[in-house]
Specification:
It contains 21 helices and no strands. By secondary structure, it is mostly helical. The longest helix is centred in the first third of the chain and has 30 residues, at 3-32.
């Protein structure tokens, strides 16, 4: 067998692992519960190792996904046969029922139901937010410990320990199945949406020092949100609003970096590079979101994103409409980021001196991790007011506080612009 064929098979299996392992995890946890993590991981690994071995000899099957699911099902049946004889009566009865209904569990609608149930289990509100994200990425998204560590700025051993603790805590929250029925978990929809939102934001502006974006994390957040649209719930409009926000943000990705991989702020992005098809999908979900019962942060943030996408140029942006949305958003979510973005919008809509006043107010009580962002915002307002020397001093402080190499390059260029403009004005 040629080296190219081996590499091709390996890449295909790797691609399918990301796509299919979450589905397998959902089925396996539904059957065996969170308490049987080792056997669940073993079955998934053995299934994909079988694919590497068999496809390397016989070639890729006509339907790789179906092949993988069939192998996984056979391995589950073997495990059920072992366990039926050696477990307590309650679990024995459960395994017997599963054995009789195993084919049904692999039907498309049941796989979807299993994934939804697992998603709600991973987003148990009693777990810490980071634990919820780790569990979701591990069990539903097929991310390895290293990938999760990269996404959350953690070491692989720390991820492993965190996952172990989260699984142990889940065992005490549910019965041995460790996974709720959707009808029992719909009340967690806000928690699940918040986790998906955080996942997307982490991908959009990763905390990794050496990367500007983690596009894979963004696509995974969208996949999970689309999974939620298959569910019966009272307010689907909120899900549609989050999807609209993610698609409209994703559409601008091609223009976010220059040829050197450096960040470009929205004012200077080439809007011809914005993905019009993705923007169209975003607007479609935005229209669907209007059927919502209540106004959520996702409705307002997706509307803001739509205003940016609809503007033919930065100068034509309807900043008064954006400011109105942020005023409404402050009533729902009075966080540092909302107040920061409100101040920026106020500056562009009604005057940079007003925006600067609001940003200076934030100096009195803001999150330490946002300090670099705040000082960059104050510097930008001063730049727009042509206070270049003051702007430079704030940019220098922001530069000292940031850890991202991409942000360091971006801020350094801003400092150079301040110096250039300062020379011209003197």
């Amino acid at each position: 067998m040629s080296e190219n064929t081996v590499n091709k098979n390996s890449k295909l299996v790797e691609h399918l692992f990301r796509q299919q392992s979450g589905k397998m995890s959902a089925i396996l946890i539904r059957i065996f519960g969170f308490s049987n993590t080792e056997i669940i991981e073993d079955i998934i690994q053995e299934t994909f190792l079988s694919a590497l071995k068999t496809w390397g000899i016989k070639g890729e099957p006509e339907n790789p996904e179906a092949w993988l699911m069939l192998v996984a099902k056979n391995k589950i049946i073997n495990e059920l046969n072992k366990r039926k004889r050696h477990v307590e009566k309650r679990k024995q009865l459960h395994y017997e029922i599963v054995y009789d209904q195993i084919d049904d569990l692999f039907l498309d609608h049941e796989i979807r139901d299993s994934q939804l149930r697992l998603l709600f289990a991973c987003c148990h509100p009693d777990l810490k937010i980071r634990s919820q994200i780790m569990l979701t990425l591990k069990t539903l998204s097929g991310f390895g410990d290293k990938e999760i560590g990269n996404a959350l700025l953690m070491t692989p051993p720390a991820v492993k320990k965190g996952l172990y603790r989260a699984r142990e805590e889940l065992k005490s929250k549910h019965d041995y199945l460790g996974i709720p029925f959707i009808s029992e978990a719909v009340e967690r929809i806000d928690t699940v949406l918040a986790i998906i939102y955080l996942m997307f934001n982490e991908g959009y502006k990763t905390t990794l020092k050496e990367e500007a974006t983690n596009i894979e994390l963004c696509y995974e957040a969208i996949r999970l949100a689309r999974l939620l649209t298959e569910m019966d719930c009272q307010d689907k409009g909120k899900i549609d609003a989050l999807l609209a926000l993610m698609y409209l943000t994703l559409a601008r990705f091609p223009a976010r970096l220059n040829s050197s991989g450096e960040l470009i702020e929205i004012e200077h992005q080439d809007r011809q590079k914005w993905d019009k098809k993705i923007i169209s999908v975003g607007f479609s979900f935005l229209n669907k979101s209007r059927s919502s019962i209540n106004l959520s942060r996702y409705h307002l943030e997706s509307t803001i994103a739509s205003i940016h996408c609809a503007a033919r140029s930065f100068k034509e942006t309807d900043w008064n409409a954006i400011l109105f949305c942020y005023e409404k958003l402050l009533q729902i979510n009075n966080s540092f980021m909302t107040r920061f973005n409100y101040a920026i919008a106020l500056g562009w809509a009604q005057g940079f001196d007003l925006g600067l006043i609001k940003l200076k107010e934030l100096e009195k009580g803001f999150q330490v991790q946002k300090r670099s962002l705040l000082y960059s915002g104050i510097a930008e307002m001063n730049m727009q007011l042509k206070n270049f020397e003051v702007a430079k001093s704030y940019y220098q402080v922001a530069l000292d506080l940031t850890e991202s190499s991409f942000d360091k390059i971006f801020i350094s260029k801003k400092i150079t612009i301040c110096d250039t403009n300062n020379i011209r004005t003197n």
